[in-house]
Write a structure and sequence with these properties.
314 residues; three-stranded mixed sheet; 11 helices; globular; Lipid_A_modif_metabolic_enz
């Protein structure tokens, strides 16, 4: 093994964590980024040529435009960042001596709503431009004939979290710290999450020894309701949590007002907090043949603790 990975999106949340994880395993990481003012050890996409690929064991493609709940990102921006960039970099991989390509797609490339558990057998039917742009990239990758010397993995993660992540977990944490009651106690749901540590472990192991290319959902083993998550955050941060059981019809009226006046509490935010979205990781667990480093609750507690430590240090 060349013991060197090329990683796009190296300055993002997943990229930074993956680099730190791999460095501990004595694997050198060369970062690839769009940034103009590049930090040391990072090269731009336009300078990411065939030789960089050929001198690396694996290319981990993390870069892309994330799903924007504020709806200010255009469809063209999603396709440019998630589809066309992936096509460009994948073509370079195919023409190089690099052996492994890992593409970080999304469960939203398959479905925005899920009944039961999402599996790799589900027929993709994304609704948003984000999901469609991710699926287009997947379709291009899968349309190519891969030589026997190469391996290609498409990973579909659910909601990724970890220390210092700024997503919905952080939002819930801030709400609880301000002692704002959680108003959605009437909603019972189950959701999958993915610890960043588990994701890094999966990427490392795929490159290390999994022989066959494939498409894999990636998630922690268990699922949790938002109400349970709120309680977990309260317990981990030593805050008393007040959960209100406001009737759903009243919540619906509040959402309507939020939509009309452009307030943060809108339909999409409500769905994020209350809908079911369970993701099966049976396929990836089977090919790995190893336990993930963290269970759901260990991973969530690590993330919540990082919020607590940051606030305390701040």
């Amino acid at each position: 093994m060349k013991n060197k990975f090329l990683v796009s999106g190296a300055t993002g949340f997943v990229g930074k964590n993956l680099k730190a994880y791999l460095n501990k395993k004595n694997i050198k990481v060369i970062g690839v980024s769009r940034e103009e003012n590049l930090i040391e050890g990072i090269v731009s996409y336009k300078n990411c040529d065939i030789s960089l690929f050929s001198n690396s064991e694996a290319f981990i493609h993390l870069a892309g435009k994330a799903h924007d709940l504020r709806k200010v990102v255009s469809a063209d921006e999603y396709y440019e960042a998630n589809t066309y960039l992936t096509i460009n970099l994948f073509d370079k991989f195919l023409n190089s001596d690099c052996k492994v390509f890992v593409y970080l797609s999304s469960v939203k490339a398959v479905a925005d709503r899920v009944d039961g558990f999402l599996t790799e057998k589900d027929i993709p039917n994304p609704i948003t431009a984000y999901g469609k742009s991710k699926l287009k990239a997947e379709e291009y990758i899968l349309s190519k004939v891969i030589s026997k010397e190469k391996r290609v993995y498409i990973l579909r993660p659910c909601m990724i979290h970890g220390p210092n992540n700024k997503g919905n977990l952080n939002l819930l944490y801030q709400i609880i710290q301000k002692r704002i009651p959680y108003p959605l106690g009437k909603y019972i749901n189950k959701r999958s999450f993915l610890s960043i540590e588990n994701l890094c472990f999966i990427i490392e192991k795929l490159v290390e020894y999994v022989p066959n290319s494939g498409v894999y959902n990636v998630a922690d083993n268990d699922v949790i309701s938002t109400k349970e998550l709120v309680k977990l955050i309260g317990k981990a941060s030593n805050k008393r949590v007040l959960i209100l059981n406001i009737p759903k019809n009243i919540i619906g009226k509040l959402v309507f007002i939020g939509e009309k006046f452009g307030l943060p509490f809108n339909t999409e935010k409500l769905e994020k907090l209350t809908q079911n979205y369970c993701v099966s990781n049976a396929k990836i667990n089977m090919v790995l043949g190893e336990e993930l480093p963290l269970n759901l609750y260990e991973g969530l507690n690590k993330t919540i603790s990082s919020f607590k430590d940051k606030n305390h240090n701040g």
